[in-house]
Amino acid sequence: MAVGPRGASGEMHCCNASLRGGRRYSVRGLAGDSQDIFLTDKAVSKTRDTAAGARLLVLVLAFSWGFNWVFMAFALKEVPPWSLRFATTGIGALALVVAVYLSGRSLQVPRSAFKHIALAGTFNVAVFNICAAFAQLSGATSRTIIITYSMPIWSAVGAWLVLGDRMDRVRVLALALCIGGLTILLWPLFAAGVPRGALFALGSAFGWTIATVYLKWADLGIDPLVNAAWQLAIGTVLITGGMLMIEGTPHLWPIGLRTTLAIAFIGFIGSGLAHFLWWAIVGKLPTMTASLGSLLVPVVGVTASVFILGEQPTLNDVLGFAMIFAAAACVLLQPGVKHTEMPE
């Protein structure tokens, strides 16, 4: 049977011995130790239902984050990038603060941890979101998604350089696939000049990577939902400052109904509700299942870009996506490795 409420802590196997109203299970942790526990039939059924519901929510989240990119493309047709990100991250931050309050958590964090959260929010929210918006303005949405989701490979390399993680053969293969995929993807674009959209997309990937590796190094031990709320709030403050300097007051009116709905979706669903649900359920699933959910996001996003936005990826786009996706799968689907990065 799949792991129960503790998710990535180990695996649980049913023993032959059964007792009245339940069964004895042997729980094996990641360290190889084992312990027998007894669960009633009712508890086993509840655990299975919880895991099944969590898996369904991961699928819902993959579609929420995947469609975020499509709605962003719609909104950018009427709203400039700084104003758009001011609105969406602001809505998301407000939604997460409310979620923290309603879930009984406290927004209070140690003063020593706040500077680390602030730095992570700078790269994870401000840099990521602004670069992603300009990438979509300068290039195809599908290509932006492909390049941005090379992040797991750069994160693995960063963890090797900064944290001393082992760079095993799987990660070396992932890096080679990623570099090969990016080369295939970008080389034809340089013939028409500097591909600004692709470079901005790489900026998103690197901003996300820097924040992820830095937080692993800092090892704050802060509730992830509280951490995400503070990161979004700090990122919103920085984006607001940039907007005031570059665009002036927010350019959010007059706008059409489709743009209004797009902003609401990105803010409430993509930035707010999705993050709350992710951190609420990730601990209830095996690491592999959660990682598969992460891998679905670029698939959904690219597919939606083709069918909804009418984009037509070139052969180089397809080959590049296949190689970068395979590289991300190599990193994310390694057994026994838990990924705690803030998803996008």
Q: How many domain units?
A: 1
Q: Specify the structural class.
A: mainly alpha
Strand arrangement within the widest β-sheet reads 1-2-3
The quaternary state of the protein chains shown equals single chain
Report the portion of residues in β strands: 5-15%
Please give the count of helices.
Answer: 11
Helix and strand pattern = EEEHHHHHHHHHHH
The separation of the N and C termini measures 30 Å
Average pLDDT works out at 85
Short description:
With 344 residues, the chain is mainly alpha-helical.
Give your account of this protein's structure.
It is a single chain. By secondary structure, the chain is mainly alpha-helical. The chain has one domain. The protein is 68% helix and 7% strand. The protein has 11 helices and 3 strands, in the order E-E-E-H-H-H-H-H-H-H-H-H-H-H. Strands 1-2-3 form a 3-stranded antiparallel sheet. The longest helix has 35 residues. It is globular and about 45 Å long. The protein starts with 9 loop residues before the first strand and ends in a 12-residue tail after the last helix.
Helices, strands, pairings?
Elements: E1 10-19, E2 22-29, E3 34-40, H1 41-75, H2 81-102, H3 111-138, H4 141-148, H5 151-163, H6 169-186, H7 196-218, H8 224-246, H9 257-281, H10 287-308, H11 315-332
Antiparallel strand pairs: 1-2, 2-3
Give keywords.
three-stranded antiparallel beta sheet; globular; single chain; 344 residues; mainly alpha; 3 strands; disordered N terminus
